[in-house]
Amino acid sequence: MTTGQVVRTATGRATSEGGPLTGTGTLVRLALRRDRIMLPAWVYVVVIGVAANAYTFAKLYKTASSRSALVASGESNPALLFLYGRLNGDSVGALTAWRYGVWGALFAVLMSVFLVIRHTRGDEETGRLELIGSARVGRQAPLASAIAVAAAANVVLTVLLCVVLPVLGLPAAGSVALALAIGTCGLAFTGVSAVTAQLTSGARAARGLAIGVLGVAFLARAVGDSAGASGPSWLTWVLPLGWTETLRPFADERWWVLVLPLALFAAGAWLSFSLAARRDHGAGLLPDRPGRPTASAALRDPFTLAWRLQWPALAGWVAGYAVLFAVCGAAAKGIAQLADTSGALTKEFSRIGGQSGIVNAYLAGLMLLGGVAAAAYGVSAVLRLHAEETAGTADPVLAGSVGRARWGLSHLMVAFAGTALLLAVAGVATGLGYGLAVGGAGTETARLLGAGIAQLPAAAVIIGVAVLAFGALPDACVAIGWTAVGLTVALNIVGQAGQLSHWVLDVSPFTDTPKLPGGTVTAAPLIWLSVIAFAFCAAGLAALRRRDIG
Amino acid sequence: MANAIEARGLRKRFGKATALDGLDLTVRTGEVHAFLGPNGAGKTTTIRILLGLLRKDGGDVSLLGGDPWRDATALHGRLAYVPGDVTLWPGLTGGEIIDLLAKLRGDGNDLKRRQELIERFELDPSKKARAYSKGNRQKVALIAALASDAELLVLDEPTSGLDPLMEAAFRDCVASERRGGRTVLLSSHILAEAEALADRVTIIRAGRTVETGTLAELRHLTRTTVDAELDGPLDPDSLPGAHDVALEGTRLRCEVDNAALNEVLRRLTAVGVRNLTCRPPTLEELFLRQYSAQNQDSAQNQASERQQVTPAP
């Protein structure tokens, strides 16, 4: 190698044209490397969710008459219409699209939002993009690579569904339509979140804004679907989630509807690029409002700090819980009717919810769902400790006159109080929804509140696992905490319950929780679960006191 | 209690990597002590052990008369800490964080002092932390520490990110803290800062203490820089104990071992001196000498390893 060559290469590099997209390929590879576990997991969850449902419907509703009976009762139940949308026919495919079209799309949307925000505003807020931007990387490359990765994830998800659904015996055209309905919905929100990432200077707020749009989209289609013929049914047409229904998979597909999400994606991408070209690095378009120059009395110790950091997330959970469980509670009125259409469905509900009447079984199943989801919230709240430790914001707290255990307890309090609150909300909302529909709101609310709170000890055990992991194995605590949640979902909700021995099921604390309402209340398992949860938390805090921080 | 910090033979390993390998550090009560060393020498690890965030693997350490691991919570009420890389909660304002840190330490809030410092460092306390630059984040932590009534300030590279004006404000503050009797442990790269502020200095390298003492003591071990304008020509090799001799016509510049100073001056006056400046070395020069010694060591090690691996052609 001679000096002359080096000089030539150097000048060659220096003079070559660099566009705004220079370096996008490298950033895409970086994103794929960073998300090598999260990305396949999301795609897997969406694909398996839809496929498992198609499989279940084919098994539960073998005859055409049982299916048309289900459709008849499903169409007349506003709560089910609110939750799942309108039915387009009585084939197994149409039922799958009804039950999981909107919800599959919802998960695809969440995946897209998290991906796009994480690689744009998230990295910008932490300052990582500044380092990248100073290299030979175009101004628009980070945004372009984030959009490319999210779009690719949605394409992969669509292709997998196109392959899996026909294998399960569904018609090819409908399968492709359902797959595209879900995939393009994810794509549309890729565009939406690319725009919200330009608006705020904080990643949390950008994510919240995009999920807010999702919430509005869900409510718009839910109201449009359930309002009846005289209501504003056009609402279903307004926003992406409704388009999964108006595409009519498995029922004379309206292919042109696909233009809508694709156009939204294109518009969002275009808008985000032009906004990004106009704004400063690190700045949002919505101004940062100045805050208090001094701390109020509501911010004075680790506990109030933990509350300050965590209440916005909890508020979102509570709002979601209130709406969902009120609607699901109201849906219970039609359950008895619905169950008549399928003996297998009755069996399914009884398996999850217990034996004492189909409505109680349904409500008990609902409370179990509320319990598992509340445990998931609790785990996320506990893992905030880990996030604070790795970010370095635990240091100033612990360098103050604050013991390790007290710091740990501060976030634990939020986790447990929040979980208890969510369970109470689940119980009360379900009770009100059901009670107002059938009469007797007072008694229904009281007994469902009890049923909701009965889930707390089991949820506490799952939270305790996360606390123990954070104390003893901090590097693995995120994986361990979410694995514990995933196991309870797998064991208690997704099922295969019939085939698993009781010994395996007993691994999940929710298996030991009395099936309420309707089941018999036995205090012993609740006490035992509480003792185990307490022991896990105490051991976790003790381990935290013994290890290195950071 | 004579010593605020007393560490003897401190050891810490992270997996296979040795961070501290028998480090000694003594900080006397009431002094400003500079803690110097290259990147990765173990300064931050030492400070994190002193704060009870890390557990030592060996050696003895005491902080304000207590055990920094066992008595962490109680001791933290008597010290204030500024981390080297300040991360703050992005959704809280600077003012809120300053107040919160004071409350977490268990301080009474001295509003007048807080306001003075905010004005002195020109911080906007109503901005959210995510909007602060590195320098402004640093100011938040500094103001919180300086406004406290802690007897010991532990400052880990406190001026990284500050502009020269703010750096000067910081120096003034530390100087007045020392007059007020506070003990300061100041880890730094900025030697001028240590030279201007510190009573005593500890230099560490690869987890070990290599030099410790007052600046005068450290300089005593070293050389004097001589600048001279001579009357006539001089043989540059005729000066015993002189190093890095640079002779341009009649202008001479060299470094002289203090023991040889007398002899060198005699030779210079024999030639005739028109103009002479002798000055002690800056800490910069001390520091560079320490580092280059280290680099020579490792270069020699590598060279000898290479020779062992590759047979001579």
What this model shows, in words?
The complex is a heterodimer of chains A (550) and B (313). Chain A is mainly α and 550 residues long. In chain A, 75% of the residues lie in helices and 0% in strands. Chain A has 24 helices and no strands. In chain A, helix 18 (404-438) packs antiparallel against helix 19 (441-453). Mean pLDDT of chain A is 86; it is low at 1-15. By secondary structure, chain B is α/β, with parallel strands linked by helices. Chain B is built from ten helices and 13 strands. In chain B, the strands form three sheets. Chain B has a six-stranded mixed beta sheet, sandwiched between helices. Chain B has a four-stranded antiparallel beta sheet with strand order 11-12-10-13, with helices on one face. A three-stranded antiparallel beta sheet of chain B has the order 2-1-4, covered by helices on one side. In chain B, strand 8 (200-205) and strand 9 form a beta hairpin. Chains A and B meet through helix 13 and helix 17 of A and helix 2 and helix 3 of B.
